[in-house]
Amino acid sequence: MLPGIGWIAVVYMWQGRWEEAIRVGDENASIAERVRSRQMLSLARAITGYARWIASGRAEALQSVRDATSWMEDRGGAFFISLNYGWLVDGAVACGRMDEARRHAARLFLRARQHERLGESMGCRALARAAAGAADGDATERYLRWAMRSADARGSPHERAKTQLCRAEIEIARGRRGEAQSLLDAASEAFEGMRMPWFLDRAGALRSRL
Q1: Binning pLDDT at 50, 70 and 90, where does residue 3 land?
Q2: Alpha helix (H) ranges present in 36-80?
Q3: What's the number of domains the chain is made of?
Q4: Domain shared by 2 and 66, yes or no
Q5: Were 29 and a residue from 11, 44, 117, 164 both cysteine, which residue would form a disulfide, CB within 3.0 to 4.6 Å?
């Protein structure tokens, strides 16, 4: 299981509260160093690495996620390692490193087959964006379906709303404004209800493109 303070940081990340995730992750790292728990330290560094990448846009922040994940893999992994794979797929796609994205995706889907799906929706959304950018409509739809299926399997409203947001962005690029409008309405209502202003702002930015 994730340590309690680790869960707090992860929830902050799910909510788009990046600076708070970094703060709690750094606190977790300090605790891990004091108690000499390398597993807790690896999780903390993965969390803060991904959150810093989102907050700053600096690709080098993702190296902390790669290093932490490699350490976990060398020691047999961890129950929650699909989170790391989801973060790594997302980062690799955004940086145009598709070979790396595919390697992490293979591990992500293996974890999903083992019923560990924490990072699955995130990774599928990233792969859907990559497929859409490559004009591969079949792959785009497949990954979006997988992302929604994973969200439903976990009973996760925030993953469902994020997948609607992702599909809306893709539909806008396709020129399907009506479909995008409906998706943005649903996602925005969910983000507002869950108090996720960062994602609500992203939905607003997409709405301005309609």
Answers
A1: low
A2: 38-56, 62-74
A3: 3
A4: yes
A5: 44
User: Cα(165)–Cα(151) distance, rounded to whole angstroms?
Assistant: 13
Task: Annotate 92-102 with b (16+ C-beta within 10 A) or e (fewer).
Answer: bbbeebeebbe
| 61 and 87 Cβ atoms separated by less than 8 Å | no
Tokens describing residue 141: 């739809």
Its pTM surpasses 0.90: yes
Tell me if 39 sits within 8 A of 58, measured CB to CB.
no
The first and second tokens of residue 121, run together, are 């929706």
Q: Over pLDDT 90: what percentage of the chain?
A: 85
Q: Is the pLDDT of residue 137 over 90?
A: yes
Boundary of a domain, candidates 12, 43, 74: 74
Position 40 scores a pLDDT of 86
Opening angle at CA 170, ends 195 and 168, nearest 5: 35
C-beta separation of 153 from 182 below 8 A: no
Q: Do 61 and 49 meet the contact criterion of CB atoms below 8 Å apart?
A: yes
Burial grade of 114 (CB within 10 A; 0-12, 13-18, 19 or more): exposed
Task: Give which of 32, 9, 3 is closest to 21, Cα–Cα.
Answer: 9
Q: Which residue, 91, 111, 90, 101, is CA-closest to 159?
A: 90
> Whole domain around residue 24: which residue ranges?
1-74
Q: Cα Rg for the chain, rounded, in angstroms? A: 17
Cα separation, 140 vs 51, in Å, equals 26
d(CA 9, CA 12): 5
